[in-house]
């Protein structure tokens, strides 16, 4: 019975992979240190399809929406929501770190810090001005956007392509149908790749445990503990309040996405579950065009977990190095973080790179202090990814309710049914059909 249940549930398979990864990392550290490619390979397989999935979902959603003004309205509302929530996250992180005096008393001697890694991260990092940022959204060519897997550039082209199909109308019906069928094939491939999630989690956790040890998993210090507690409070109080206003309970909502959250926990990457999350949100009764616009944009602009991390880490470094912070310094940290936290998702090693850029822009704090957080960045990356994913799922619900693009009764039923059907086939199964655009209209 247990074997049958495990064979049908990706959630249980991922949990088993996670436990085996910890055991392997402790018992066979040398072998486990060589297993990192398993986790990296799984994430690369997912990323291989993300640009195509975003393109197909957005084009199908917009071409079937019928009202281009509505698409623009959703985009504007999304930007407003993202700005408000990430600002709240930044303020919470700053307030908690400063209020608790996080890092105070560490008395780190700057001369003792090895700045080699920090210098490597800081080299070439600079703040992008608004003009440079906007120009960066425009790809050199359509093919380069897909080749570089630049989601924002792909999203821009998808919005233009879908809008053009909408304007052409019946003459482009064949193209719209073709893209719809391609999306079904891509999602079927994704279902096959998702089956490899337990192996990817096993490799990632085994490598991490062998490198840092169990002691590092349980004794990461005040910074990591405060960060996780702050993320939990943000999810429960802020995101929970948003969901309550939308008419959905927080805990059942989180259980609905439990398979995806466990995969993110094991891989420290929310990229690994983007397609599955989009499908589940559509299944809840949210219009596909809304999901296709909010989720990909939110992955770059609605980074709640990253925002909390950024202000916590900056204040921690300041306190640990004995740097006194004035009210002006705190305001500077907040304003700079509002800029640097946007679009960080697509940068390799984004957290440390953007943290380096932020420290560089706040002269009062020594940039060499970046070295202090290098050893715990991976562990904090798990919390960042989990909070970012939860925030984007909640954002999609909020925008959909704001636009009346969500069937609330269907969403409540879907969440309740998922909670009851413990033995049902998981949503990530390749046998689960993809809801066609327009079917989930409220």
Describe the fold and architecture.
It is a single chain. This protein is mainly α. It has one domain: Proton glutamate symport protein, CATH 1.10.3860.10. It is 73% helix and 0% strand. It has 22 helices and no strands. Helix 5 packs parallel to helix 16. The longest helix is centred in the N-terminal third of the chain and has 33 residues. The C terminus is likely disordered.
Please give a quick description of this structure.
With 442 residues, this protein is mainly α. The chain is built from 22 helices and no strands.
Distance between the termini: 40 Å
Largest sheet: none
3D shape: globular
Care to count the β-strands?
Answer: 0
Would you list the SSEs in sequence order as H and E?
HHHHHHHHHHHHHHHHHHHHHH
Q: What percentage of amino acids are in beta strands?
A: under 5%
How many separate domains make up the residues? Answer: 1
On the 0 to 100 scale, the average pLDDT is 76
Helix proportion of residues, in percent? over 70%
Question: What is the CATH architecture term?
Answer: Orthogonal Bundle
